[in-house]
Structure formats: C-alpha cells, structure tokens
C-alpha cells in the first residue's frame, strides 16, 4: 500500500478538499464509485461512470492530490481507495457531520429524482442537515413527523428524503441501523408538541 504524507496539516485543508467534492458532482460520483468498487482502476471507473479515461484520470489525480482518494498500488494499472472522511462543521448552535454519506447522496442525486428534487429545494446544506436527521432515523431516534415539524417541510417530503438517505447510510455505514423504539418515538413527538 502506498503511503502518502499527511497533506491535511490543518483542518482547513481537509475542509477545502471536501468543499471541492461537494461543489463538483463528478468528484462526488468518482468518490462514491471508488467507495463502492473498493480499489478500482481508472479504466474500471471510466467504464462505470461513462466518462473518458482521460477525464477520470485528471479527476483522480486531483482527488489524490487533495487527499480525498489514495493510490494503493505502485504498479500499473494503479488502484485507488477512498479515504475515510469525518469532518464536523459547527454553524451557530448546530453541528453537522460531513462523511462519505454526503458524497454518495450527492452522487446519487444525478440518477435519483427524490434526492435531486430535495437538493433543488433545500440546497446541499439542506441535504447535509437531512443526513443528520437520517442518522437518527436509522437508529430509531427520529421519525418523519418530527423532522417535518422542525424543518417546516411537509411530512411526505420528510419521509421520502429519510427513506432515500436511509438507503445511502446503510450502504455507506451498514453498522448504523437499530430497531426503533416506537413508544419512545411517540412520546418524543408528544413532548415536542
């Protein structure tokens, strides 16, 4: 395995690299594919992404230099893997966790109408916020009614995005799911009324 020096000597470096992936959906798609395929080559990625090898190579080079991906072989063809990203961003009283799940959700929004519509309505920041609710939803600590009330969105929209993000989270973080305690959730809904 190739060892690269720590490029992110400061958290701001990681934040800037992450913002590149958030803004450029092609980077998000590449990251999501590398995560899914587990050490693919550029050629394998270009086939899956329906992009030219040259384009994918240039994108991969940028993502490796940004320390979002790493090259894990020294011989040709090079293989790559996704680095684990775990960045907490505090905005006022709220803390948001930026993990690979955000990149995967952004990548899936290219083909998933529900994710795309949610991003169109609420932006990438709204998606990151919805992921916080989805993490609690997957662990049985949240439901669509609570999210809808707190975010001032329709219950159906909350339920739809929670289901879509649940699938993302279980693909990216499969150990996260727990069975919900229905009585506890209903009591929490009543307390928040």
From TrEMBL:
Compositionally biased residues, Acidic residues: 180-193
Domain Transcription regulator TrmB N-terminal, first and last residues per copy: 28-83
SUPFAM superfamilies xrefs: Winged helix' DNA-binding domain (SSF46785)
Any Pfam family hit: TrmB
Region of interest (Disordered), residue spans: 172-193
Gene3D superfamilies: Winged helix-like DNA-binding domain superfamily/Winged helix DNA-binding domain
Protein name: Helix-turn-helix domain-containing protein
Organism (species): Haloarcula salinisoli
